[in-house]
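User: Round two. Same drill as before: sequence, then structure, for each protein.

Assistant: Same drill it is. First protein:
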Amino acid sequence: MVIAILGGRCCGKSDLARAICDKVHATVYVGRAYLEFAKDETEAKARFLCMLEDAQLTDDYLIYLVTEPELVELLPPHCLRVLCKAPKKTVKARFAEKLAEPLTPAVSAMLDRQYTAFDGCGHEMILDPTGGDPALLAVEVLEEAALLLKTIRLK
């Protein structure tokens, strides 16, 4: 089963993925990790897409952290899409913490522009891993993934 976790910077994607991996064994890919599949980007994308398509109907878990909206096109049709959406204030605080310094006005403006980047992307769930217990959210995601897989297999 492919679980796609979509979202911008510092919204809790990695926290959710770690919590899922604490519950089940899963292989995790992040962003443009497909570039490791071949020297040519087009071939790398094609190989990665084939791997995702092969994994989508299996009992094995593959988690793909989608870090840019244009990467959504790589997702197979029958994967679980989880949109991570934290409050903008939280995103900025987490980003500043990663930088270990206050945000400059330019960086703050960049985060403002990127905040809604995934809003138009289709998803089955929307979660805020920064505002709750990621372990509980992981259970919710895994239950939804199992239900989706069962539904797909019945068709």
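Second protein:
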Amino acid sequence: MIAKNHQITYKNVASKYYNFLPEEIELAFADLDQILENYGFHVKDQLFFSIISDPTAPVMTAEIFRPIEEDDFLPMPKSEDIRFRSYFSVNGMLMTRITDQYDEQSQTKYWELMEHIQMNNLVQSSPVFVEFKRSHSGTAYVEMCVGVTG
């Protein structure tokens, strides 16, 4: 099932671009967390990323986002290449949810979103975003979404 008019909204978000093998994505997550912690920032429990590269490419390019508790983003060396946004919001998105078999279902759900865009004569207006979430009862799930116009 694909939901319409989804939005992603976060406050105080740090991000960084990474290139990695898809099976090494956890290393990129850990690297961003470590950089932020080294400079005294406290990451929140939310994590999301955008897929910048072709999903069939052997090396994935993604921007990884991590909300932080701090309202101020103190100066950090440019060499760390960390971006900060006081507010991060993307509206007008299509969204689908993955509740189990994440590795297998992520490819299927990605292509379902792309097919929906094509079949409905929509235009993709953002990268595909993947958000890791947890229900009130503590059950983990993933939302995959993409901005569209038309």
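The beta strands are 3-20, 47-51, 60-67, 83-98, 123-134, 140-149.

User: Perfect.
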